[in-house]
Amino acid sequence: MTTDIDLAAADRLLTTTRAVRKRLDLDRPVERQVLLDCISVAQQAPTGGNSQRWGFVVVTDAEKRRRIAEIYRAASGDYFEQSKDRALAKGDQQTARVYDGAAYLADVLDRVPVHVIPCIRARFPESGMSSTDAAGVYGSIAPAAWSFQLALRARGLGSAWTTMHLYREREVADLLGIPENVTQVALFPVAYYTGDTFSPAARAPADTVTHWDGWTAR
Ligand SMILES: Cc1cc2nc3c(=O)[nH]c(=O)nc-3n(C[C@H](O)[C@H](O)[C@H](O)COP(=O)(O)O)c2cc1C
């Protein structure tokens, strides 16, 4: 079967878009247009009822990035270091490397040239929400946010999906004037990456997570 997609290139993009932290180029500026191009790609993502209630807050102002980094570090405390130590104690090197990178990112976040906060114009009621409604809200922004990261990777930029600042979401909302009826879903540090390419990560074989014709207890 032929399609208009270069399958090898598509699979390479999908399997090598990693969480980039230590390879973010902190000194190279990022052009506004490349960010707009990536947001334009992201806007092709699906949304419930075609609602398209997304918003991408792009922060380049140095003082605001400094403040966001401060909030991020206050929210994370020593969580990344402690998690790294726990992973090392269990001999789980892959997870230890993730937390080592996460701690590094927290340290340098203010120096990452761009912070992007994907948002959705929706709010969870304090009293809780049905899983169907929650699926509708996050399902209407997560595909776009991931498309944004894929589009960055294809253009030589890296990012990492982070959520730590959401423990202090309101402080960042106040800093950036994000209204109360808008939910922040992540914080992406964005920069050109150093080095040439990335490799796929080790994952369990697909048949170990696939359930044919019904859930198989494993
Ligand atoms: C919902 C979610 C929350 C995450 N939160 C953080 C975070 O707060 N800080 C961080 O450095 N990485 C965070 N990550 C990145 C993960 O650590 C990373 O995706 C995972 O280790 C896999 O690494 P890889 O994408 O390179 O395969 C988060 C990822 C997701 C999907």
| CATH architectural name of the domain at 19-61 and 112-196 | 3-Layer(aba) Sandwich
Q: What is the structural class?
A: alpha+beta
> What's the CATH topology name of the domain at 19-61 and 112-196?
NADH Oxidase
How many helical elements?
A: 8
Shape: globular
Termini separation (Å)? 35 Å
Bin the helical content: 40-55%
Low-confidence runs of at least 5 consecutive residues:
none
Oligomer state equals single chain
Walk me through what this model shows.
With 218 residues, the chain is an alpha+beta fold. It has a domain at 19-61 and 112-196: NADH Oxidase (3-Layer(aba) Sandwich). The chain contains eight helices and five strands, in the order ααβαααβααβαββ. Strands 1, 2, 3, 4 and 5 form a five-stranded antiparallel β-sheet that branches. The protein is globular and about 50 Å long. The mean pLDDT is 96. The structure holds flavin mononucleotide. Flavin mononucleotide binds next to helix 5. Residues 18-19, 98, 102, 105, 160-164, 201 line the site of flavin mononucleotide (FMN).
